[in-house]
Amino acid sequence: MIRNFEDFCRELNQSGFSMGGGNAKGIFALIDYDWTNQDALDTPVKWHCGDPEVDPWEWRMRVLEERRDVAYSKVFFKTSGFITREWYPHFYAVRRNGESFAEAYERGAVSHPAKRIYDIVSGGDVALHEIKALGGFGKAEKSQFDRAMVELQMGMFITMTGRKQKKNKYGIEYGWNSTVFATVESFWAERGVEIPALDADESYEKIREQILLLNPMAEEKTIRKFIRG
């Protein structure tokens, strides 16, 4: 039973990966959105209660800010998920297959809005609102921008690194925190990890086997979409 953030991190390192929003999507979620709202379960874990020890919504940022062995981003079904340091190279091998961003863009696998964003993020950690400003994305391009951000995360070109408070022109903080992004390689390099080159087919099978251990009922078409993105 998961009762707090520490329990969650321990179980995540055992499973290797998990959907992030409380919906297993036919694969696996460590914290189902519904079970934490059932009084019969003996756990203090509760979504959106605001307590960083027992609120899974808070844990998505805590793993990025306090740990060096977990990545969290929109990597599964265009929505959020966690992947541990042990398993990340396998997903990376399948999604990237040894290809650089420049090579992917050259063959037309990446959109132009995504390139505009990647060129900014490749220069260092950048907050979401700063990416919009630096990339010159206006209100008319909001949908393109949003799609491109998900595209880059799903392709494992960029990933979330934490959050940053917005500041006005006078340096005064205001509003909600803004999510910060970096390239995947930079994210792991800052944590002392160099992503090894693995065989994409072997990595696919390894992930598939782990999924079936976590969820023997998972369907092949869902597994394939989960792994390949």
Tell me the radius of gyration.
18 Å
Record the strand order, biggest sheet: 1-3-2
Parts with pLDDT < 50 across at least 5 consecutive residues: none
- Helix fraction? 40-55%
- In total, how many beta strands? 6
Gross morphology:
globular
Mind explaining what this structure looks like?
- The protein is an alpha+beta fold and 229 residues long.
- It folds into two domains: 1-96 and 197-229, no CATH class; 99-195, Arc Repressor Mutant, subunit A (Orthogonal Bundle).
- It contains ten helices and six strands.
- It has helices spanning 5-15, 56-66, 88-96, 101-106, 112-121, 128-135, 142-154, 184-189, 200-214, 220-228; strands spanning 17-19, 70-76, 79-84, 126-127, 158-167, 173-183.
- Strands 1-3-2 form a three-stranded antiparallel sheet. It has a three-stranded antiparallel sheet with strand order 4-6-5.
- β2 and β3 form a beta hairpin.
- The chain is globular.
